[in-house]
Specification:
Strands 1-2 form a two-stranded antiparallel ribbon. α9 (181-198) packs antiparallel against α10, α10 (212-226) packs antiparallel against α11 (229-240) and α11 packs antiparallel against α14 (370-385). The protein is globular. It is mostly helical. Helix content is 45%, strand content 4%. Residues 1-26 have low confidence and may be disordered.
């Protein structure tokens, strides 16, 4: 185990070397293209820097497992997570507004990273470095840009994507409008399709870096978002045809202390370490202060509604902790929740890493897995024609068998509505506390507001327009009439 974690730490230092003093001293948006990049080492320095905003980090990593990260905030808008106060409650009640900085910050902090990647691609294209090196580097940056653009698009709808000619004139102030939905989708799609051609196959990719598999997986998420079912199926088939990915036998073990370096199920993960090169602080978020072993702040809970939706033998609820004996000797559970489980069980998901000496853990942040390919293809097959099929049922049952629950039959889900209700439930059970995409799944099927109202009743402030987050007032002001707020927030 030590060898594996040492390997991960070394790799993290390579991938996220943006944390190092040397890399931080270079602003790739302001460098002189006449002198940089001029070597393969320069190109690689640019490439690893694009992973910096995609890591787990409280202040500036979009995959942070804190309230500043996607998973925490997005799952908290659904029945998967709930909080009794603060941003957690704001997410659960759908009470966010343009002054809610935890909801506007994703755009404010990360939108300009897309511009930086655009400039990096241009500089690499103009360099005199080996063409193969350039091609592979650009593929990696386009995958990063496509991923980040998709994640922001999923939160806010179309965003501003500054064209290269504007970026090359930084002293000229030019307010820009958000792209149309069609142009936004095309921008993301073109990046990811290009990346899928030149990225390494999954068996050749370095753990924690991009492969053809992740480029196609994000395309699946984009096509699901747009309900382009035939293209979801096409990308799922392409991933399956790689003959590389498969489900691991041990679902719970995916989030163990040993990094899943050789896992055939993990499509992309963000490595984490105690040093904070990339941070996973989920135990600190989820575990109560009186939990045995190294504790946390207990900032978030699941919901009993979500817990009750699992079948009794489903191993995927193993780390939804419904009972524990605290350091005070008291047993806490649904009947005696105190202030630790009054909303629901503890959504631990990952190994508790009881021996950790800090707020951080070495359990890696798994963002996308092969199970998503199987369930996405099943959903696409049915929604493409409007009729459930045995092939779709079989794909769902592959996932359910691993979960140790009964297989479903076509006769019980032979209408589009019943099948989609089932696939939504299956998705929530399979991916809770991973990438936050269950929110997007609910929105796709018109269930986002319905689920929020069911969970919180009269306290909920949900409405159909809450499917998109608001932009900050600063962004609207800077846009000088060209940058428009999402409807409902004016």
């Amino acid at each position: 185990m030590k060898n594996l974690k040492n390997y991960t730490i070394v790799l993290l230092m390579l991938i996220f070397s943006g944390c190092s003093q040397d890399l931080e001293s270079i602003n790739y948006d302001e460098i002189n293209p006449a002198i940089f990049p001029t070597s393969e080492a320069d190109i690689q320095a640019i490439v690893v820097s694009v992973y910096y905003p995609l890591r787990g980090a409280y202040a500036n990593g979009i995959h942070s497992t804190s309230e500043n990260g996607l998973m925490f905030i997005l799952d908290a808008t659904t029945e998967i997570l709930q909080g009794p106060y603060g941003v957690q409650q704001e997410a659960s009640y759908h009470s966010y507004k343009p002054t809610s900085t935890n909801f506007t910050r994703f755009y404010d902090v990360f939108y300009n990273k897309i511009s930086g990647m655009t400039l990096s691609i241009d500089r690499i294209e103009k360099s005199n470095v080996n063409e193969l090196v350039k091609k592979q580097a650009i593929a990696e940056i386009k995958c990063a840009r496509g991923l980040l653009a998709y994640e922001l698009f999923d939160l806010y709808g179309p965003i501003v994507v500054a064209p290269l000619e504007v970026l090359q004139k930084p002293l000229i102030e030019e307010p820009l409008a958000r792209l149309s939905n069609a142009d936004m989708v095309s921008f993301i799609e073109n990046d990811l399709k290009a990346a899928a051609v030149d990225l390494p196959a999954p068996d050749k990719a370095t753990y924690g870096r991009f492969s053809q598999g992740i480029a196609r997986m994000i395309l699946i998420r984009l096509y699901l978002h747009e309900k382009r079912w035939a293209e979801v199926e096409e990308q799922a088939n392409a991933i399956m045809a790689m003959n590389y990915y498969a489900l691991e036998a041990d679902y719970v073990g995916l989030w163990g202390l040993t990094a899943p370096l050789k896992s055939k199920e993990v499509i992309w993960a963000v490595p984490a370490d105690y040093a904070g090169t990339s941070e996973n602080q989920w135990q600190m978020m989820a575990l109560p202060a009186n939990f045995p072993g190294t504790t946390g702040y207990g900032t978030i809970q699941s919901s009993w509604k979500f817990y009750d939706s699992f079948e009794a033998t489903d191993i995927r609820k193993t780390a939804l902790v419904a009972e524990y004996t605290g350091t005070d000797g008291v047993t806490y559970n649904r009947a005696n929740p105190a202030n630790y489980m009054q909303l629901g069980p503890i959504p631990l998901k990952i190994n508790p890493d009881a021996a950790r000496k800090s707020a951080l853990t070495t359990v890696d942040i798994i963002v996308y897995r092969y199970a998503d390919v199987l369930l996405s293809k099943a959903e696409a097959l049915v929604n493409k024609t409007g009729t459930p099929t045995q092939e779709a049922i079989d794909l769902v049952n592959i996932v359910r068998r691993r979960a140790k629950i009964s297989e479903i039959e076509l006769a019980d889900y032979n209408t589009l509505a019943s099948f989609n209700d089932m696939i939504l439930l299956e998705r929530s059970h399979e991916y809770w506390c991973e990438n936050g995409q269950y929110r997007s799944d609910l929105i796709r099927h018109g269930k986002y507001t319905e689920h929020a109202l069911s969970l919180n009743g009269a306290a909920s402030q949900s409405a159909p327009y809450k499917a998109l987050f608001p932009f900050s007032l600063d962004r609207i002001s800077e846009g000088k009439g060209k940058f428009l707020q999402n409807p409902g927030y004016n």
